[in-house]
Every structure is written in C-alpha cells, then in structure tokens.
Specification:
single chain; mainly alpha; two-stranded antiparallel sheet; about 55% helix; globular
C-alpha cells in the first residue's frame, strides 16, 4: 500500500467550514502520526522520563485533555469537575495503557471534528474567556491553539519515543 499524502494535501474535508480546515487537518494528521509512532511501543516505557522529559504517557493524556478543554472554552463553557480532575491527573499513570490513551486521543479528535463541522464561521471572532481568570481569546483562537498545541506535543512525543526506543 502506498503512503498517503499528509491530510492537508488530500483535499477539503466534508462538512468542515473553510476557515477551520487547517485545524481539522492538523488534528487528523496528529491522530495518524500518533497511531504510527506508538505502534508496537513497549508498555513498560509509557511512563519513563528520559533526561527529565515528559513521559509518552503524559503527552498522550495531555493531548486528549487539552483538546477537550479548549473546545469546551470555544463553546463558551467552563470546565466541569470531571475535566478539572482529569487535568490534575495528567502525568499520573493510573490504569492507562498506551492503547487506551491512543483511543482516548482518537475519540477526542472525533469529538473536535464534530464540533468543527457544526461551527458557524460568522461566530469565529466571538470572544471567549479561558480558565478561571477568563483570559481573553476567541473561538478561532481556541481552535487554532488546539491545533498548534497538539502538533507541538506530537513533536515532543516523537522525540521522547525515539530516545526511549533508540530508533
């Protein structure tokens, strides 16, 4: 099977507003790259922190959590008790496996794509407060930050996995 081009080179995504195509492309690209990167990853290394770097488990937890939180703010909502508990638990192994964290991230990407598909582009400039301090942002700012933050952590995850597996 030949390798597909990156998601953004496969054409527009159905039902995603034009201005949000790059956000959706980045999230879908990250999902594909994480699935490939983590394929066959040794479970015993999931929470290892080489040279003090964040563990692969943390990055996977954080990726799912941050998308969830930023898309919640984009809706104009504050975080729930459950979301705050998840945030506090990021970096702790709990009962997570690599597969369960990958599935959690994948589900969060699906939820994000669904939310993007329902977005009215005329509301992208709407103001949104972030966190308890209600720091200023916009719907578009939150969506774009979710995409760039995801790609930043994907890069960090890639390096950490390569260091841990000597690949």
């Amino acid at each position: 099977m030949s390798k597909l081009p990156e998601v953004w080179l496969r054409g527009p995504l159905t039902n995603i507003p034009a201005l949000l195509q790059p956000v959706a492309h980045a999230l879908l690209q990250a999902r594909e790259e994480i699935a490939l990167l983590m394929s066959g990853f040794p479970e015993k290394l999931l929470w290892e922190r080489p040279a003090g770097l964040a563990s692969p488990g943390f990055h996977l937890q954080h990726l799912a959590g941050v998308i969830n939180r930023l898309f919640t703010y984009a809706k104009g909502h504050q975080l729930s008790k459950q979301q705050l508990e998840y945030l506090a638990a990021e970096g702790k192994s709990g009962d997570y496996t690599a597969a369960s964290l990958i599935d959690l991230f994948s589900q969060q990407v699906d939820d994000a794509i669904s939310q993007l598909s329902e977005m009215d582009e005329t509301k992208l400039k709407a103001a949104r407060g972030v966190g308890r301090a209600q720091l200023p942002s916009t719907v578009m700012g939150l969506y774009v930050h979710a995409a760039e933050h995801t790609m930043r952590h994907l890069g960090q995850l890639l390096v950490t996995v390569k260091v841990l597996t000597n690949n």
